[in-house]
Design a protein that fits this description.
The complex is a heterodimer of chains A (450) and B (106).
Chain A: H1 39-48, H2 59-63, H3 67-77, E1 80-83, H4 87-90, E2 93-96, H5 99-106, E3 112-113, H6 142-150, H7 156-175, E4 182-184, H8 185-202, H9 209-220, H10 231-253, H11 261-267, H12 276-307, H13 309-317, H14 322-333, E5 338-343, E6 347-349, E7 352-354, E8 359-363, H15 364-367, H16 403-420, E9 425-426, E10 431-432, E11 441-443, E12 445-447
Parallel strand pairs in A: 2-8
Antiparallel strand pairs in A: 1-2, 3-5, 4-12, 5-8, 6-7, 9-12, 10-11
Helix pairs in contact in A: 7-8, 7-16, 8-9, 8-12, 9-12, 10-11, 10-12, 12-14, 12-16, 14-16
Chain B: E1 2-7, E2 13-18, H1 24-30, E3 50-53, H2 55-61, H3 66-73, E4 82-84, E5 98-100
Parallel strand pairs in B: 1-5
Antiparallel strand pairs in B: 1-2, 3-4, 3-5
The chains are: A alpha+beta (450), B alpha+beta (106).
Chain lengths: 450, 106
Amino acid sequence: MATQPEISSTEEPPRGRTRPNMVWPFPPRERPDLPDHEPATLAEYLRTAPLDAVDIADPLWWENDVEGVFLKRLRDEAPVHFNEVNAARHRGFWSVTRWEDIMAVDTNHQAYSSEASLGGITLFDMDPDFIMPMFIAMDPPKHDVQRKAVNPIVSGPNLAGFETLIRERTAEVLDGLPRGEVFDWVDRVSIELTSRMLATLFDWPQEQRRKLTYWSDISTSDPELPGNPSKEERQTILMGMLQEFMALWNERVNAEPKTDLVSMLAHNPATRNMPPMEFMGNLVLLIVGGNDTTRNSISGGVYFLNKNPTEYDKLRANPALVESMVSETIRYQTPLAHMRRTALEDTILGGKHIRKGDKVVMWYISGNRDERSIEDPDAFIIDRKRPRQHMSFGFGIHRCVGNRLAELQLKILWEEILKRFDRIELIEEPERVPSAFVKGYKKMMVRIPA
Amino acid sequence: MAKIKYIEFDRTEHVVEVANGENLMEGALGNNVPGIDGDCGGNAACATCHCYVGDDWLAATGPRSDSEEAMLELADGMTANSRLACQIIASDAIDGIELRLPETQH
């Protein structure tokens, strides 16, 4: 670990870090007064607003796919920047936007904690009255032993055993798609394939697989947005999920160990005595981790190829490019836009004084567009030189455990698509998820020519 | 310049020359040796350049750092011979070294 420079006593005054007690409901969100919320208007605002006037956590930017305008300004002008706007809602946080700085935080788990009780790994703290410990939101040594309990299911040799099953299912889903008709790719393909895979990993009844999707969506949904369950409703729904999984756990804990995730957790000494909230937390982690992410990379691929027709031509002409196209899609999409840490000590990052207790947000979606580390980062290039060098899986001990499974699912999907369809046409701009965490699509209407 | 022998899981051998000072993950990628991914670019921040160093070469390659150790702990099939290739720097002292590669990187 690099030695920290001495912290000067004349650093800038503390801003927005008075740590108000976060009392639900949060005060209303401060938003700029704009004539409308069209993407062009929002982008123009983000291009010119003072850096200190913008709350990048506001779902408005993300729902309209304009956050990148502001993140680029942060990278260039203020690579470690304190976001104070709306601090009464999120306590304020540091935005870290350059590749090198993100790498420094991600690989320093001694100084930057993931601990659930400090708020966890997302910009908005876990509900203090509903802390769900899960291994991604733990520090060593507990993190390590729990992660190792589930690691074997997504290890290389084990994945080889899934390949035939994934290919058969993918073929079945693709063969069932209508031709010459407009349909929602998110629902018919992205959700369908990821929910089937998740059900397999948990050995969960396939006919009830959409429950897994539902719980995944609930776990990351913003209780303040109209139409979403309230905080209390969300807790009730997740308790219901726990109950259903407890039934499976109770069946499997006394049975011969099997290779599904529930059995693995029930039989591993590191996880078999987890309290119920910790079991719930790890379920949420595995469900969201295996669902939201791959789902949105599946949709993202269709979107990016439509926006970059010469890349689509390249892929059709040379299906051997699927593997690098998959990595490029995961980079370009960055389905989880950020991970958050909490500083355990005073430290210096990018010349800024980070205080013990501060929230530090690593914007992977920005690091993936940092031209200091990636050549021509704003271009979608399916045969770029080192497509695997992206930060969508994170780095350090919390790096995505299911990354190889995700890549395998996407690779098989695109191989099977190329065998069947000359093109998948994007009909209109997709509806996006209003979230600074899950960068994704709610609906994407497409047509496969008859 | 050090001569490095990379041995794939299926025993295919690749002997390449790597300039002194360059790490052995780069040495593989730069010479199109399959079986090493190097996703993090050489920061010991992933474990996709996992390799096994023969007993005879362990001393010459030196000890693992804490961060390397932490990442290897999470890799598949870690043994006492496991290293991250990006943390081994080519030099005269390791001229002729053999690195065995695992079945898959994770």
